[in-house]
Amino acid sequence: MGYRIAVVGATGNVGREMLDILHERGFPADEVVAIASRRSQGTEVSFGDKTLKVQALENFDFSDVDIALMSAGGAISKEVSPKIAAKGCVVIDNSSAWRTDPDVPLIVPEVNADAISGFTKKNIIANPNCSTAQLVVALKPLHDKARIKRVVVATYQSVSGAGKEAMDELFDQTRAVFVADPIEAKKFPKRIAFNCIPHIDVFMEDGTTKEEWKMVAETKKILDPAIKLTATCVRVPVFVGHSEAVNLEFHEEISAKEARDILREAPGCLVVDKHEPGGYVTPYECAGEDATYISRIREDPTVENGLSMWVVADNLRKGAALNTVQIAELLVNRKLLEKRQAA
C-alpha cells in the first residue's frame, strides 16, 4: 500500500511541477490530491495521464494524508502548516515561513540528508530558497574537500521565481517593445523586458534585500555556520532557470582540476566545462532538467585558495518542486514515515 500525498498550491507554477515530478519519479503514492484556495476549487490539473480536480484548502481534512507538499506562500503556510502537522501529516513547505525555525530542518538531500530526523519536533520540514538550493549542491563537495571560508555570489534569477504573473509580465512587456505599445510594470518595480533589476524581495535596514539575506542565513544553516557569504541578487529577463556567478575562498588549497573532478562525482551535479565558445550551460538549456550544472571552473589568483565558477539550475525543479519531492522520498526511503492508511 502506498502513501496519500496532498499538493497544496497545485494550480501555481511550483505546484504543477510537483505533480509532474511525483509522476515522473514514480513516487509510491496510492492517491495524490490537488489542493488550492477556494477560488480555484474545481479547477483541473494534470497528474500523468490523469486529471485531478482541485479541492479547497479551507475545508480539506488532512487526517488521512501522509505528506503535504506545500507551495501556498509564507503567510498561508505559517497559519495552516501547524494545523496540518497536528493531524499527523508531515508538511514539506516550499515557502520561507519555516526555514529559520531552529525546530524545523532545512533540507537539501544531496547536502544534509541526516538533518531530516529533526522533523518530529514540529512535523514540518522546510525547503530552501531556490537560489540557495542550487548553490549548496555545488558547494557541499568542495567544502568537504577544502573547507570554504568565504563566498561571493551574484545571482541572475528568472522571472518564474516570482510566479506566473511575473512570467506574464515579461511576455507582455517584451511584446509591447516590438509593437511600440506602452510598457506597464506591475509585478516588478521597474521594467523587466530587456533589463536587469538588482532587487528581489524587500529591502532590509542594512541595504541588503531579503533574498540576499536568505542566501546567507540558509547556507549557514544547511552547510556550515562558519561560512561567510555575501550575495547580490538580480532579476533578469529569463523565463526559467537561475544562474549564479560564484567566487570561493577556501581554508585549504584546491585547484580548478581537483574541483572539476570532485564535482563530476558529486550527487546532483553535472559539470559542463569546456574552454571554448558554447562550452558551458545557460539557463535556457537547464530548463526542465534536474541537475545543478556547473561551468567556468577556474582559479582566482587574487586570493589565496580561490576559485570561481558558474552555477545554473531550473529554479522550479531543483530550486523548489524537485527538492520537495526528494525530501518526501528521503522520508520514505529512510522509513521515517508510517503509512497512515496501513496503520
Identify the notable features of this structure and list them briefly.
single chain; 343 residues; alpha/beta; Rossmann fold; Dihydrodipicolinate Reductase, domain 2; six-stranded parallel β-sheet; 9 helices; globular
What would your notes on this structure say?
- The chain is of the alpha/beta class and 343 residues long.
- It has 2 domains: 3-127 and 321-333, NAD(P)-binding Rossmann-like Domain (Rossmann fold, 3-Layer(aba) Sandwich); 131-315, Dihydrodipicolinate Reductase, domain 2 (2-Layer Sandwich).
- 31% of the residues lie in helices and 24% in strands.
- The chain has 9 helices and 14 strands.
- The strands form 3 sheets. A 6-stranded parallel β-sheet has the order 5-2-1-6-7-8, sandwiched between helices. The chain has a 6-stranded mixed β-sheet with strand order 10-9-11-14-13-12.
- The mean pLDDT is 96.
Short description:
With 343 residues, the chain is of the alpha/beta class. It contains nine helices and 14 strands.
Strand order of the largest sheet: 5-2-1-6-7-8
Task: Tell me the major beta sheet.
Answer: 6 strands, parallel
How much of the residues is beta strand, in percent?
15-25%
Mean pLDDT: 96
How do the helices and strands follow one another from N- to C-terminus?
EHEEEEEHEHEHEHHEEHEHEEH
N-C termini distance: 11 Å
Q: Which spans have pLDDT < 50 for at least 5 consecutive residues? A: none
Total strands? 14
CATH fold-level name of the largest domain? Dihydrodipicolinate Reductase, domain 2
| Helical coverage, percent range | 25-40%
Number of domains: 2
CATH architecture of the largest domain: 2-Layer Sandwich
Calculate Rg over CA atoms: 20 Å
- Count of alpha and pi helical runs: 9
Q: Looking at the structure, what is the overall shape?
A: globular
Strand-pairing-aware structural class: alpha/beta
Give me the CATH superfamily of the largest domain: Dihydrodipicolinate Reductase, domain 2
Highest-level CATH class of the largest domain: Alpha Beta
